[in-house]
Amino acid sequence: MPTENRDDSLLARLASRGGQREAAFLAPHHLAAADRLERLIQRAQLVPRVTMSYDPTRVGGRSGAGNNVLSATEASAAARRKLSALANNLPPDCWGVLFDVCGLGKGLQLVETERRWPRRSAKLVLRIGLEQLAAHLGLSPHATGAGSGATRNWLEARLPLIADEPL
Q: Disulfide check for 56: which of 40, 61, 88, 118 has CB 3.0–4.6 Å away?
């Protein structure tokens, strides 16, 4: 189950710095990619619900709510198609760790135990997967854009600060 509070989540701990000189294990673009994946998995409604929801848009309460249910179904189907495309573009092990951590909220130790991987290997696979996902989503560690272009003004020439001719 995805975590709602990012302050104590696994990814937030990996993105925090251990000390002044130590760099964070995950960069901000990794966190942005993980957040987008988490929201996409929630939209796809792939994680089973543990509690009952009495929201009329989810259970189809009123007759007018049928259109909302249909649009919610279409939205989840579109999210599932996007997830399928992501899964096809990422390495299988990376996708599995990303889905387990971002979608199901599993810890890295549990992922390593389930897959019979050595210790700390899931942490590296998570970072590689987040880097691949960020690249696929167009996120980069540094801002990019137009180079150092000329400053554009609406005036053709700058007006003098003090008039040359007395009035």
A: 61
